[in-house]
Design a protein that fits this description.
26% helix; 13 strands; 380 residues; alpha+beta; 11 helices; four-stranded mixed β-sheet; elongated
Length: 380
């Protein structure tokens, strides 16, 4: 920027003097994204550039102001530019005024695809209030709750009743803290001062902290805190197939809404308790099945537990310890998935720790006839 004369608004926005309103708006949005202080924290040059861009756009976007600027040039700009943007950190200001995370809701006009929300409407020009927030119906906050479920409940689904104690918005004063009246210091604007410049922002009123209202009589229910304890017993349905980390949303069972807004949701964070026999592996179930060494050697038909109840499984002769057998379709069916997983049975051959003299004699006779060396493949 040249220091020997006032900058040209068209030059600042990088458009020609006969540019259309759409071209001016597109250029402004592109430059604002690049130089916004929140994108360039601590960069004084970027902040100064952003102020120039904002000042230029505020003039050129208005056909009447643009016409006067084209006619009078610097003289008109000097007369009009009586106020300066007072906020060094726009994001911090918005979040302090309307709650953490409100910046993206408020700043939708700049970034195009971030529409307003949270029940606020904004005025960006003229008037003694500059930018004001008009409180409308607000949806209540979502509430998260960790819910333990048994392995069987997670696999088959269940209806459970849970008891919750919530610190929620006071139902009598709707979280305000009591009866209110318009703040006498700011006249309900929520600002200590107003002026020109970008969005006509002023500092928050120190008396009402930017709300535009002051509490005159404390609420008897919450004693002015705006919060009240709420105890509830809620029946919830746990879908079949959930696992640890799954989230189940219960509509309308969260925090209270404000100004007639709907309540938030209850979000259940599922934590599945371990099972003494089964372990889950995605859609599959795994377990260990102990076998007598004679069952493994001769083969057998044994009962095997599954999540649907016991079934009879054929054990082939010569089954080895560590070998896996499969029970097809005996696994878990996840929500929205038609095909069930399988159950994998890992064999664990048990060798007797004590033998009678007769048993020992029989095994010694067997050993004499069994000529296979189990270590023949070892190269020592």
């Amino acid at each position: 920027m040249r220091v020997d004369q006032k900058p040209d608004f068209y030059e600042i926005l990088g458009v020609s003097r006969d540019a259309s309103q759409d071209e001016i708006k597109k250029s402004y949005r592109r430059l604002a994204r690049e130089y916004h202080p929140d994108v360039n924290p601590g960069d004084d040059e970027a902040e100064a550039r952003f102020k120039e861009i904002s000042q230029a756009y505020q003039t050129l976007k208005d056909p009447e102001k643009r016409g006067k600027y084209d006619q009078f040039g610097e003289a008109w700009e000097q007369a009009q530019h009586t106020g300066q943007w007072q906020q060094g950190d726009f994001r911090e200001f918005i979040n302090q005024q309307y709650g953490a995370g409100s910046f993206r809701d408020v700043f939708g006009d700049l970034f195009g695809d971030m529409g307003g929300g949270r029940g606020f409407t904004f005025s960006t020009g003229g008037g003694r209030g500059g930018m004001r927030a008009q409180q409308g119906p607000q949806r209540g906050p979502d509430v998260e709750y960790e819910m333990p479920v048994t392995f069987d409940e997670a696999v088959h689904g269940a209806e459970k009743e849970i008891s919750l104690t919530l610190s929620d918005r006071c139902p009598d004063c709707e979280g305000i803290g009591g009866q209110t009246e318009t703040c006498p210091a700011c006249g309900g604007t929520g600002q200590a001062q107003s002026g020109g410049g970008f969005f006509n922002l002023g500092a928050a009123c120190p008396q009402c902290h930017g709300t535009g209202q002051v509490v005159t009589t404390r609420c008897r229910t919450c004693r002015g805190s705006g919060e009240a304890t709420r105890r509830r017993r809620i029946k919830v349905n746990v879908p079949a197939g959930v696992e640890t980390g799954s989230k189940v949303r219960v509509r309308g069972e969260g925090g209270r809404g404000a100004a007639g807004g709907p309540p938030g949701d209850l979000i259940l964070n599922i934590r599945v308790q371990p099972h003494p026999v089964f372990k889950r592996d995605g859609n599959d179930i795994r377990m260990e099945l102990p076998l007598a060494f004679t069952e493994a050697a001769l083969g057998a038909r044994v009962k095997v537990p599954t999540i649907d109840g016991p079934v009879t499984m054929t054990i082939p002769a010569g089954t080895q310890s560590g070998q896996e057998l499969r029970l097809k379709g005996r696994g878990v069916k996840r929500p929205g998935v038609e095909v069930r997983g399988d159950q994998y049975v890992e064999i664990s051959v048990k060798v007797p720790e004590k033998l009678s003299s007769q048993q020992r004699e029989m095994l010694e006779q067997f050993d004499e006839t069994w000529k296979t060396d189990p270590r023949r493949d070892l190269r020592v």
